[in-house]
Specification:
The structure is a single chain. Helices cover 19% and strands 41% of the residues. The strands form two sheets. It has a three-stranded mixed β-sheet. The chain is built from two helices and five strands. By secondary structure, it is an alpha+beta fold.
């Protein structure tokens, strides 16, 4: 849990003028980004209430086991 909590995931998406994303960032996107860093996490374990629709920095809880939850920092940035 400590290792995955130290990981920062960076996701780049196309966004409009008001930092509104075209589409959204889902738990599947976060799981894919974590896999690229070497962490295998089932997308159903990522507790994202609603898909992320704005550029910014988010703290997303990931339930690893029954009593173990880590928080992953997700940075959503604008695609240039």
């Amino acid at each position: 849990a400590g290792q995955i909590a130290a990981a920062a995931v960076s996701i780049t998406r196309k966004a409009g003028e008001s930092d509104q994303l075209f589409g959204s960032v889902t738990s599947a996107d976060i799981a894919e980004a974590l896999a690229a860093l070497g962490y295998t996490v089932d997308k159903r374990k990522i507790q994202l209430d609603d898909p992320i629709k704005l550029v910014g920095e988010y703290s997303v809880p990931v339930k690893l086991h029954h009593d173990v939850t880590a928080t992953v920092k997700v940075v959503v940035s604008r695609e240039e």
